[in-house]
Amino acid sequence: MRKRPAIVTCAALACAFVVAPRVLARGRRLRFASEDLQADGKWHPFQPKTGSDRSTSSAAESLNQGPVIRSQSNLVSILTSVMDKDGKPVVDLPGSAFSLWEEGVPQKIERFEAQTSRPVDLALMIDVSASTFKDLKFELDAAAHFVRQVVHPGDSLSVFEISEAVTQIGDFTDNVSLLEKDVRRVESGSGTSIYDALVLGSAALQRRPPDRRRAIVMVTDAGETTSGADFEEARRAAIASGELIYTIVIRPVKNENGRNTAGEHAIVTITDSTGGNMFVLDDMAQIQPMFDEINRELRTQYLLGYYPQPTPPPGSDRHVEVKVDGPYTVSYRKEYFTAK
């Protein structure tokens, strides 16, 4: 029987993972820790503190220490999805149909790829908290089907399990058979560490080869309960990675009084910042069409590239706006960070 990878920990967010000197039957546990290994020889999940006495450096600090755009030419690439009034992808638009601004200043689009064929690295994240337990098998069946659809030769995908800790089930690969087995190895848990998952998943994607597309596909009830990271750390990590985030939010109850609406609003904000899309699931029968829609979007994206003018200052948070001619809805990455 194949063992899952070793425990790893992240002592500062968005840093390289440290491999623990032991292997468990479960997968690669990605935890926050106040220290890599305590004197008693045990792993201690990081517990956030209020105020300035927080015992680990924040993701915002870590992300600001390193470059986000590494190309010496400073070409900024913006992946863009265009939808018609029925929510279907619009294909075959010319470059002249697009206009782009940075911080309100018009920019010249120097690079345009319609329906880009760049390979994509995907982190498929599945919330296994108690509120999703009754539908877990249906959810995993749909996820396995999504893997078969979305992974093309040259792409890669890794399955993550979200509970009180974040577990990376297997390495990034394009081996569909292995990935389907990874999906089936997901098990139910207790808490929901959504912010931790976004920070650690973003760090994993950043370690993938450059000049590839990156995306997180997350199925969750949006009920954040156990993360060490906070909302802003998760948002900045996702933006710095340059990934798209697609979320399928499962609503266990339709009444707002019984839902975590604050968690839903947080997911909406982060998803919108990256240029992905969010789907709300009220009936499990909807999950397969939602996975199908995500697959279509990933295969019908436009790539816009430009050299910012005027040159932005180092270490700044830049805001982008994209418009397209016609009665369409446009999704795109709305922020990026310049190198220091």
Structure commentary:
The structure is a single chain. The protein is of the alpha/beta class. The protein has seven helices and 17 strands. The protein has helices spanning 59-64, 136-150, 176-184, 194-206, 231-241, 261-274, 287-299; strands at residues 8-10, 18-19, 28-32, 76-83, 98-102, 105-107, 109-113, 120-127, 156-162, 166-168, 213-220, 244-250, 277-281, 302-306, 317-324, 329-332, 335-337. Helix 5 links the parallel strand 11 (213-220) and strand 12. Helix 2 (136-150) packs parallel to helix 7 (287-299) and helix 4 (194-206) packs parallel to helix 5. The radius of gyration is 20 Å and the shape is globular. The protein starts with 7 loop residues before the first strand and ends with a strand.
* SS element count, helices: 7
Describe the global form: globular
Helical proportion, percent range: 10-25%
Question: Terminal Cα separation, in Å?
Answer: 47 Å
Number of domains: 2
CATH superfamily of the largest domain: von Willebrand factor, type A domain
Report the order of strands and helices. EEEHEEEEEHEEHHEHEHEHEEEE
Q: CATH topology of the largest domain, what is it called?
A: Rossmann fold
Q: Rg to the nearest angstrom? A: 20 Å
Into which percentage range does the β-strand content fall? 25-35%
Determine the mean pLDDT: 79
